[in-house]
Fold this sequence. Notes:
With 226 residues, the chain is mainly α. It has 10 helices and no strands.
Amino acid sequence: MTTIIAKKRPGRPPDEALQERRRAGILAAAAKHFARRGFQGTDVQDIADELKISKGSVYRYFPTKQELFLATVDHGVRQLHEYICQSSEHVHDPLERMAAAVRAYLAFFKSHPELVELFIQERAEFRDRGKTIYFRQRELRVGRWEDVCRDLMASGRLRKMPAGRIVGVMGDLMYGTMFTNHFAGRNKPHSEQAADILDIVFQGILSESERKRLGHNGARNGQHGK
Length: 226
């Protein structure tokens, strides 16, 4: 007697695009709930109810509430950098590219204030993790802007100094502005605020005569170029 072994049919391959859409939907809903109620006050069931899915479906993507929260922050930061990149990558002039990035940064947080709340909660709830997601992600991307600064210095459009110094100061300025806007409830249009920042950074606060005086004194004291 011949034994016939039935071949197991392969299951339907996962729809990766559908899975990504579901994952993005969960993260978007989670951002709203965590921002409104805090990490401790948010129940994953509330997120599931909003999306009309089971709590288990959320946990299939994110096994714990902590993983969901951290993924939500990470997703928000990635969206920020993607928005900045999309807003500046096609700008040919490198100085204008930097200006476009500043405007995009402020515009993003104007539209996504919930992400600021998540930054605050991440630091409060997960202090033991050390460096926050925002700064981990920033460190991965500074090289691009340091290259822009080096090109501008090579062409004589920026005074020479370590490129990391410029990017670091600009990054800290934008980060502080974002928090100040959030806490102070500023309603000034982001385009106007960006113009103010760029004017101070690019033009400085000293008059031409004062810059020359300081440059002359620096050269006389052997400090010029330091």
